[in-house]
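mind reviewing these tokens:
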Amino acid sequence: MDLFIFSIFFFFAEYGYTMNITEKSDVYIYGVVLLEILSGRSAVENRLREGSHIVEWVKKKMGSFEPAVTILDAKLQGMPDQMVQEMLQTLGIAMFCVNSSPAERPTMKEVLALLMEV
């Protein structure tokens, strides 16, 4: 799928949660993009089981007894521990961005500050 179709998908996924589009919608989409980068997976794909969205897949993985590192792209195995820890911190920021409650999401300015601390 091309970028335009994914943009429409994210727009409607966010709209489906809140029935309202706000500046926090951009934060949600940014979080989804971070999850794609960290996991090496597309936002929606068949291997996520039943065509689920990456946000739901990550939430399910984080709620299981599997280590959070299993969410990261397998190509990243063997990276230095410090880099893995930084990716896991970024994963936490991404999950903060995709909070189902827009009011509880950070602003993009706060996201930038959090990422600068990683």
Remarks:
- The chain has one domain: 3-117.
- Confidence is low (pLDDT under 50) at residues 1-5.
- The domain at 3-117 is CATH 1.10.510.10 (Transferase(Phosphotransferase); domain 1).
- The first helix runs from residue 3 to 18.
